[in-house]
Amino acid sequence: MIRVIQWGTGVTGKKVALALHKHKDFEIVGCYTTSAGKDGRDLGEICGVADFGVKATTDQDAIVALKADCVLYMTLEEFGLDKPVGEICKLLESGKNVISSASTVLLYPKAAGGDVAARIEAACQKGGTTFHGTGIEPGWASDVLSLTMSGVLGRVDTLVAQEIIDYASYNSPQSMFELMSFGKAPTPVPPTALPPDQAGAFGAPLMMIADALGAKIDSIILALEPAVAEVGYDVAAGRIEAGTMCGKRMSFTAMIEGKPKLKIEHITRMGEHVRPDWPTGKGWYVTVQGNPSMRLSVEIGIDGSDQNDQATLATAMHVVHSIKMICAARPGISTFLDLPMITGPGILSGDGVAAG
Asked: Cα dihedral angle (97, 102, 104, 105), rounded to 10 degrees?
């Protein structure tokens, strides 16, 4: 039995906890929350089901003192890496492996710049532990799918990985209004060149893909086109006022040998009515111009289910299915380049391992 600590009980964290509780190979031994309103409450109650027998706490020292094999670090941070990296390193040094979906730049820590990767690696060596960053996009769609496709390609002229999602039904005010800046003043960004290690969460998959394919990124070009609400309206996470941002088309393009070779583009809306002239869809798409040329489409919620709920579940399961692998890995940072394929054991049995 693998002993797991759930760190964070937001939208995705709750789905992870439900899956862990249902899974025969995992035992939840602790839960950390940043919410005073959740302190002392049973994790099952927080997830909307019967009690698990595990109380959430805001006491980090109590969590660090627990005996556990792995911590699932899923607390969102608005800006900066100092706090999450410090917390992650403390957990690693205490002898606990850590899997994080919170700061997606950490799926390839060298992309965070500075001494971030060195700090995490040193903490792993001190604790004899492993760190792995994951997610869904980035963390699977742009990076794992692109790398998987590369095995059948002879030449790539351009590779474009897109996420196209309508976030109107996603009830996470912090993610939507603080991290993604919907409902705030629209601020377009003309094409701007950035060093690869200053492109944040989207520089990480681009750097990982380039490194895996033996290429060097010269710079990453950031561009952002906002969509502006003509009238105010409500979405699941809150209200979008007239004149504020209700959608954005954002891209990060890796220049390699002076040419735009790799591109990640996010087309995000708060409602189907937003910029119908932009590409539409509900999922992730990787388009390769080269030899051979091809397009991979991954659409979510194809049975009519809510795309945001399904994407959140997919993120949660990508975390859960990596636990055994990370607990068995050598000490140090393990990215997708260091791991075998992450598969989903147990998903064909009964109703699977995902709850909710």
From this structure: -80
106, 123 in Cβ contact below 8 A? no
Using only C-alpha atoms, the chain has a radius of gyration, in whole angstroms, of: 20
With beta carbons less than 8 A apart as the criterion, state whether 211 and 150 touch: no
Going across the sheet that includes 155-166, the strands are 189-194, 219-228, 245-256, 259-269, 155-166, 283-291, 294-299
3-state secondary structure of 135: coil
Name all contacts of 234-238 with Cβ < 8 Å and 24+ positions apart. Answer: 235/167, 235/168, 235/169, 235/176, 235/270, 235/271, 236/168, 236/169, 236/170, 236/171, 237/167, 237/170, 237/171, 237/172, 237/173, 237/175, 237/176, 237/177, 237/182, 238/173, 238/176, 238/177, 238/183
pLDDT for 79: 63
User: How many whole angstroms separate alpha carbon 64 and alpha carbon 82?
Assistant: 18
Instruction: Examine the pLDDT at 355 and tell me if it is beyond 90.
Output: no
DSSP states of 69-132 as a string? SEEEE----SS-SHHHHHHHHHHHHTT-EEEE-SSGGGGSGGGG-TTHHHHHHHHHHHHT-EEE
> Could you read off the pLDDT of 12-66 as tens digits, one per residue?
999 999 999 988 899 999 999 999 999 999 999 999 999 999 999 999 999 999 9
Domains along the sequence of the chain with CATH: 2-134+322-333 (3.40.50.720), 144-302 (no CATH)
341: number of Cβ within 10 Å: 8
For residues 196 and 205, give the distance between their C-alpha atoms in angstroms, rounded to a whole number. Answer: 11
Alpha-carbon gap, residue 346 to 353, rounded angstroms = 6
User: Which whole-number Å values give the CA distances from 298 to 92, 301, 315, in the listed order?
Assistant: 34, 10, 14
pLDDT tens by residue, 288-330: 999 999 999 999 999 999 999 999 999 999 999 999 999 999 9
